[in-house]
Design brief:
Blueprint (H helix, E strand, L loop, with lengths): L2 H23 L20 E7 L5 H16 L4 E7 L4 H13 L4 E4 L8 H9 L4 E4 L14 E3 L2 H15 L3 E8 L5 H14 L4 E9 L4 H15 L5 E4 L2 H13 L9 E6 L2 H8 L5 E4 L5 H12 L7 E3 L4 E3 L3 H4 L5
Helix pairs in contact: 2-10, 5-6, 7-8
The chain binds beta-D-fucofuranose.
Length: 334
């Protein structure tokens, strides 16, 4: 080998070595989240958050678990942050503000009330953090203030409950309505659908209607007071969720009344203890409202990140449980 070609080989080797070592020293590329934002972890994984309103009662616990389980399934892709507003809308607003400040990549929000989130939506938009509403609605424009909302059709749930009750009572009933949290989209809609439906039967009357905040304890207490005031006038209970219906059943039994027989009871959700109460003959029926949002929530977020055009609302299909099928579904219930 001539002197010149030897030098050339050395030069090439030097260049290769230099390139190799500089490559080793180079910092990893800035976090590549693909959505234009950096995850709070600062690494390649995206941080996705779920801002839950509270975590009491089987429905909400099932929802939280479903979100956590789905995030765990996709833990190669995501870090998961969970916040619990403990039943206070103001805390939920500040939880979401904190998540925005942490620069998470996306937020799933189950808004306790419809109002109160507009400034938060503005802040998220400014920070380019997508928000997907799950389970309840909030005031704002889908596709602008938030990506979309995934939920059940609450008006239809109320209609189905009203229709069932009209059929069972031949259109004649003195009804107690136990309502969900005032200010929540779901309580408004469940009332509206029911009231519209029973308006078709002039002898179906709501004789008392009160907020019992979706809890068993409040359902029982409110029902005790209504029993004191209305007694035997009560022939039916429509509860906006199973927990309140189960509270009402306790109150009726304590007053010597016969839930499921003298007083027909219909509610919404489909939790395990409600299906057990149907099997025991104390609850008559429940309209399903599915709390297992994990898979559809994450799939929807990924569709958004792929740039797919999403519907402004994604509506879950729900079933109906009564004495004919409660035993069949009780084991899979939450
Ligand atoms: O029916 C109830 C819960 O927002 C759809 O909230 C949900 C409702 C659900 O506390 O049990």
């Amino acid at each position: 080998m001539s002197f010149v070609s030897k030098n050339r080989v050395l030069l090439v080797l030097l260049v290769v070595f230099a390139a190799f070592f500089s490559g080793c020293n180079r910092k990893p590329a800035a976090s590549t989240n693909g959505d234009g934002s950096n995850g709070a972890d600062g690494g390649a994984k995206k941080t996705v958050a779920f801002a839950q309103m509270e975590n009491t009662g089987p429905w909400r616990i099932a929802e939280s678990e479903s979100m956590k389980a789905e995030a765990a399934k996709r833990s190669g892709t995501y870090n998961f942050v969970y916040t619990d507003a403990q039943g206070t809308t103001a805390k939920q607003v500040s939880d979401v503000e904190d998540l925005i400040a942490r620069k998470v990549s996306a937020i799933f929000l189950a808004p306790r009330e419809a109002e109160g989130f507009s400034a938060t939506f503005e802040a998220a938009k400014a920070a380019k953090i997508p928000i997907i509403l799950i389970d309840r609605e909030a005031t704002g424009t889908p596709g602008v203030d938030f990506v979309t909302v995934i939920k059940s059709d609450f008006i239809k749930e109320g209609q189905r409950a009203g229709e069932w009750l009209a059929k069972q009572t031949n259109g004649k009933a003195g009804i107690v309505e136990l309502k969900g949290t005032t200010g929540s989209s779901v309580a408004n809609d469940r009332s509206r659908g029911f009231v519209e439906e029973i308006a078709k039967s002039p002898d179906m009357k709501i004789i008392a209607s009160q907020d019992a905040n979706f809890t068993r304890a409040e359902g029982q207490k409110v029902m005790e007071n209504i029993i004191q005031a209305k007694g035997k006038e009560i022939t039916a209970v429509y509860a906006h969720n199973d927990e309140m219906a189960l509270g009402a059943i306790q109150a009726l039994k304590a007053a010597g009344m016969n839930p499921g027989k003298d007083v027909l009871i219909i509610s919404i959700d489909g939790q395990k203890s409600a299906l057990q109460a149907i099997i025991a003959g104390e609850l008559n029926a429940t309209v399903e409202c599915n709390p297992r949002f994990g898979p559809i929530a994450f799939d929807t977020l990924e569709r958004y990140w792929r740039g797919e055009k999403l519907p402004l609302q994604i509506i879950n299909e729900d079933r109906f449980f009564d004495a004919s099928n409660a035993a069949q579904f009780v084991n899979e219930a939450y």
